Structures are given as structure tokens and as C-alpha cells.
What does this fold into?
Amino acid sequence: MTALPLDPRDGGGRFPGFDAQGQSAHWDRVTQGVVLARLGRPTDLRFFTVAEEAAARALFDQLLDQRQEPRVPVVNMVDARLAEGQTDGWHYEDMEPDPAAWRSTLAELDSEARERHEKSFAELSWDEQTALLTDIHAADQWRGRQASRVWSLWTRYACTAFYSHPLAWDEIGFAGPAYPRGYKNLGLNAREPFEVADARPGQDPAAAKGTSETGRQR
It folds into this structure.
């Protein structure tokens, strides 16, 4: 993996030449091991079934607008969390604990897709998936649950995984953990020598192109 294929119109290339991996020598050894391992071969799935994996992979691609390789392997990262019981430590009172909620909501997502199109969610076209998710996002209730709480479950796990990956750090100009090096130039626009200026500081990709309710940006 070298860089995410984010179009400049969507905010790609805002920190030209920036490479979060290049800062790894300034992290402690434990942090190096944890972070750089995310760039290696994704871990084998241990939690999701084959059908759940297909639905989750399509869902995460939609939520994060990952349409081509290289992708951050979000489904593998979420699968590892769920297999190891690394949840957020809480869940909504009217929803199951997160592992069970993931299984049931992915099953319901496939059921919804079959009722509408006689196909699983993963088999739908990109636009069909987008329309279905947009309807869920806009609803008050979805298949017996508060839709906003289902949406929270999906997006919390998706965004936590995505933005823990060094390739996503390159996209936002984040140099990684500050320990043990720390920061010396405090204040607005007071960059460190290792930081890169935003090439388009006045650009708001969401405002320029319109933000989809189901993805990072379109």
C-alpha cells in the first residue's frame, strides 16, 4: 500500500509529500510495532461469517467512499476488534452488545436488500447500496431499531478503524503519536519542522461537491 486514491476534488493531496510512516523513528518501539503492523497483510477474519463479511465490506466501502485499491482494510480491523471483545465499553440500552448488534444489523441489511432487489446487499450496484443506506440514515426507525443508533454503531467502528491507519494519517497530515518527541511550536499555524502545510487550506470538499449522507465525501 502506498497512498489512498482520493481525488483532489475530494480533499486528496492536501499535504503533498507528507508520509506518516517516515515519522516512525520518533515513536516508541511498542507504538512502532502496533502502527506499522497495520500496513502489513490484514489479519484473517475470525468473527464475521462469509455472508457477514460480504455485507460489512460493502457497507464500509460505502461509508468511507473506498471504491478502488488500495483500501484501508477496515473490515479486517473491525473483525479483529469484535473477535477480541475490544468494544467501546458501552452499548445502547435498546440494542444488543456490539458483537451481537453487528451480526443482527448486517443480517437485516441483507434482508432489506433482498426485499427491495432480490439480492444481498453486497450484490447491489453502488447506487442501489447508496440509496438503501440513505433511506436508513434518514429514517426514525429501521427494522425495529432507532435508525440513528444503528448508524452510530456502523460509523463509530468504521471511522475508528479507518483513521487509525497510517494511510489515512497521510490524508489529513497527521504525523502520528506525539510521544516521546512531543511538540514545541504551539499555537495557530505554528507547524513543526516535520509537518506539511495544507496545499488548499480554503477548500471544503464537502461544500464544493456536496456530502453524501452515506460516505466520507463524494
About this structure: Helices lie at 29-37, 50-64, 74-83, 98-117, 126-138, 147-162, 166-172, 205-209. The beta strands are 141-142, 145-146. The mean pLDDT is 91.
